[in-house]
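Help wanted!
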Amino acid sequence: MSEPVIKIKDLTFTYPAGVTALREINLEINKGEVLAVIGQNGSGKTTLVKHFNGLLKPSRGNVLVNNNNTKKFTTAQLSRTVGYVFQDPDDQIFMSKVYKEIEFGPKNLGLKGSELKRSVKEALEIVGLWDLRRKHPLDLNLNEKKLIAISSIIAMKPEVIILDEPTTGQDHHGVKKVESLINELSRNHTIIVISHNMDLVSRVASRVIVMYDSRILFQGTPKKVFVKNALLNKTYLKPPPIARLAQSIKGFKRDVLTIDEFIDELISNKSRSSKSH
Amino acid sequence: MPRALLISYIDKDSFFHKLNPVTKLVITISVIILIFITKSFIHNLIIFIFIIPFAYYSKLTKQVFMPIKYLFIIFVILFVIQGLFYPFRETVLIQLPYGFAIWTEGLIYASMISSRLLVMLVYGYLFVLTTHPGDLVSALRKLRLPYIFGYIVLATLQIIPRVQSQMATIIEAQKSRGLETKGSIVKRLRAYTPLLGPLFMGSVQNAIERATALEARAFSAKCEKTSYRETIIMKKDKVIMVLTIICLIIFGVTSWLL
Amino acid sequence: MAIVEFKNFSWNYSGYRSKVLRNINLSINKGEFFGIIGGVGSGRTTFCSAIMGLVPHLYPGNIDGELIVDGLNTEKSSMSDLSTRVGLIMQSPDTQLTGAGMNVEEELSFGLENLGTPRKEMIKRVKKMIKLIGLESFKYRNPFELSGGQQQKVAIASVLIMQPEILVLDEPTAQLDPLGTTLVFNLIKKLARKGITIILNTQKIDYLAEFADRVAILNDNEIRKVGKTREVLTDINLLKKNRIISSDFTQLSNELINRKLYKGALCMTLNDAKEMISKVKRG
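Answered by r_m:
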């Protein structure tokens, strides 16, 4: 792996009201990673990622984005490098046309003329909303509104894209779309995704961070994380359905996450047990 | 901050807490009437000092004085402006250069206003600190004030912080899209649309949902309403109310005559 | 015995020509656990609101046909009459708190105050409800300061206290974390066992697979299918046609059948799948 995009050193954060939401976090996020952050609400997930684009500044410790200390920059300045898609699209949509909504971010960054047009067009095409560009955003359904929110960040061409619970309010197809979008974006971006959807996490993440009680409880690839049942239980998280099934079967490998892996394991398990008889 | 001042009921087991909200309202209003009858700020200061036993018996001695710091700037402004420009000035206290002067009448007037503000603030705040909003609503309801009035007062206080936190989220979301909210006035004004648009739409949506929740709880049922929180006017309430009004008359008359 | 009956029911909002619910014919039985599934914009939320009488009492528009809920015609009855028969729970935990209560007990009593329930009776019911829902340690907390899952439990309790026969839940866990989701589904399960009619709209078909008696698919504002839970949730083609993705267990069993590793019925739950695998391993 190459040089980390985001480096977090001894980060502790206490809200003005006195609640400490993060304790001594150390973390490096590498270029091209798809990093999933999981844990219950209140465990510190959102507080952590809000440090990546300077919405929050450390009470102690430092956060470096491309070796720049976030303490010296505003969120607007950091938004060139780190894009943050909020959970509820209704918290950001305010324009009367989809096209204009997407334009807002890159315009703030000073893009003009053909360069502006090109990034808006690309951003709308990646999420598949180009044909809806003249619609009023509020006439669209929840799946489409979520895509507007993601697209409006893509148009700013940040290196890192943070997605905060991208599947909330989405139907099954919305979830699938978000999944394929993450896979596509990960070719040119570093992705950080907060999610309660373990199915999604197991399929898209290259690394999973489990947050608990303001700390990183443990981390690793989905295969490593979703077999640690004792630790997962402590955080009230459950592995995805296929992993739970595999883990309940005697003699099965425990780190089976997908249907295809499951069938492969079933076949090799059968041949192993027929040999032993 | 408005939230901290408006709903800051602190649950304590004290004599004052247990009084009927109406009794406490009578005391508070009597004190406010009294300070507008008095002609000298010294009387007001005496009334102000009387808050100490009240606060002590409510087990809230420190808390009662907390909001005074918000008045400090107002006091300074009052004293400066009235001291220099009081319209009925006669006696120079200190002569300043360029023909300015600090006038005794101005300072007295400023002390009068300041002491009134001070008294209203601490007594009003003690009322808020010791009166459960639900009890107040229930007591007002018994006085036959419209039911909906009580709900609006209480719910508004509770919902203000929700709107504030929604606003905070919207600001964060738009900052993340490169919006600068600090800087020149033009920049700040420009930041308004991206913030107020989502706030307005969100508030409308929330209002619809909350209206639905209210209807689901029979809010518009046309029958005699009852109260979960009980507020009875007890003997001690009656005694205290009568005493308060007697005190009001005595202090009022003496202060007027002195 | 039918407790909710849609008779050729259609609805369009004022100012919109297109119907948000079209020719719904459906009856839901007393004590049944009934699931609703479908994509975004399919009309599921309107379906739920209609049972509570929000359509037409809160939203203006036109009804064709009729909807009978526990003997009342929703169009002709007031919402406060309906509120003692139907409890409605929506998605967002926060906006369902009325703001009328400074603590959980008071929030629960709000509906009863409005109905003019005598104070003694109110106290009794609040106590009972707090025990049933398992909120003892939260009863003096401000409901706005609870977690989403706890808030949703308070919302359920505060409509349940009005003793409705029917509980309608419109995506009650969509905004909750896994812990909150578990809390709320456990409560729903408990209520279903007590015989309350449950109508649950959710994307989480794994839960419906375990608990629902029947499931309806809504798509494009029409009912596309009503049937026994197993019949509906294991019909992969039907689900696909209606933009619903079947459970991982169903997909797994389907794949095993395609690869000729398994002969038998499609799976729906974790237990089904365990049984299937032991069959496959045996032989």
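OP: Thanks! One thing I noticed: Chain C has a mean pLDDT of 94.
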